[in-house]
Amino acid sequence: MSGRTRDLSCPERTCVGCRERAAKHDLLRVTAVEGVCVPDPRGTLPGRGAHLHPRPGCLDLALRRRAFPRAFRLPGPLDTAAVQRYVEALPRVAEMSEH
Length: 99
Ligand SMILES: [Zn+2]
Description:
The chain is an alpha+beta fold. The chain has a single domain, classed as 2-Layer Sandwich (Hypothetical Cytosolic Protein, Chain: A). It contains three helices and five strands. The strands form two sheets. The protein has a three-stranded antiparallel β-sheet. Strands 1-2 form a two-stranded antiparallel ribbon. The chain is globular. The model has no long low-confidence stretch (mean pLDDT about 90). Zinc ion binds near residues 15, 17, 20 and 58.
């Protein structure tokens, strides 16, 4: 982290993969449109959202625990190919170090 004092105006969300809390802007919002999970990096799509670290590991965890259907209150299974493509297309960011 930057070492600045915590910015209280910055909301936190829980990653549906690793279940760690993180600043909302560090997480990818995912929402469901007609049974398909779609990445919503700008947070502009309506409806329920799930938040996820945009990392393959967290996506994998979220898929294994069926976090998306639960987050969206949908029966599932949901098509998550678009989210997988989005996460895989991102440049690999070094794991955030926690100090
Ligand atoms: Zn995570």
